[in-house]
Amino acid sequence: MDPVADAFEIYQLSVAFEFPWDYTRALEFALYRTYAVPSIGRLIAETAELTERPQKRYDDTVLLLDTVVEHGFTTEEGRTAIRRVNQMHRSYDISDDDMRYVLSTFVVMPRRWIDAYGWRRLSRHEIVAATEYYRTLGRHMGIPDIPETYEEFESLLDAYEEAHFAWDERSREVSDATLGLVTSWYPRPLAPLLRTATLALLDEALLRAFRYEAPGAATTALVRRAVWTRGRLVRLLPPRRSAHFARQNREVKSYPDGYRPADLGTRPVPGLRGCPVRHRDTSAADGLE
């Protein structure tokens, strides 16, 4: 398979067959680290979606992104999911720089997570395909000046975080709400342990930006070793024979009776309706004009 021409198919195989658990965790951490950029963290705090309705915000984000992974860019379901994402983003004053940075976390963080904790490292074909997948997603979202290679995305991410990671009280509120959501998925007595374990997986730049006290070196090593060991155990399992999409994850709880992509997410503010990217009819190859 060609990593550019067959990027969607390769990425779908990586996400739904090879690394479903790892991609879920990696994309969770990818979105989480964006809160350490104050312009992003403050905006999310102001919407109150994550601080007041964290489970629904999590589910809607996961399901909208998952719809595209499952159905593709040219299907009705995929196009509807992208349109909903664009409608929501259009309601707020988000800079192109922040949008490119968020896109870069989707490209870079899964590779870093899987190389560290997955049952094997990503191949070059998978890295190129994932990069092309998110370049396509970025074009559908109307993001300008998208990096062309994985290495360019990685350089953008590292430079942006070095320049913009900083303490912000509202960002810390969003971070605390996210940690609270993660611990809510498990029995309450485990909450302090799970919070510490999550902090042990964060890098120093994130801990510093949110002003969290880093877990001890022994705790950090133990947690990271445990996640690494999980990957070694997965290596011993037989290949997955059926796709596992994020909508099947136990962490998604808001729609026990099902959902429609068109109904997910928040609604645009009055006067800002529609999708900022003009679309052709649904038979178009790329969906963009």
Description:
It is built from 13 helices and no strands. With 289 residues, it is mainly α. Helices cover 62% and strands 0% of the residues. Mean pLDDT is 92; it is low at 271-289. It has one domain. The two termini are 27 Å apart.
- Give start-end ranges of low-pLDDT stretches: 271-289
The helix fraction, in percent, is 55-70%
Q: Distance N terminus to C terminus?
A: 27 Å
Structural class: mainly alpha
How many separate domains make up the residues? 1
Fold blueprint:
Blueprint: H1 7-18, H2 20-34, H3 38-47, H4 49-52, H5 54-71, H6 76-90, H7 96-117, H8 124-140, H9 150-164, H10 169-184, H11 191-200, H12 204-210, H13 217-234
Helix pairs in contact: 1-2, 1-8, 2-7, 3-10, 5-6, 7-8, 7-9, 10-11, 11-13
Give a quick precis of the structure.
The protein has 289 residues and is mostly helical.
What are the salient characteristics of this protein?
62% helix, disordered C terminus, 289 residues, mainly alpha, globular
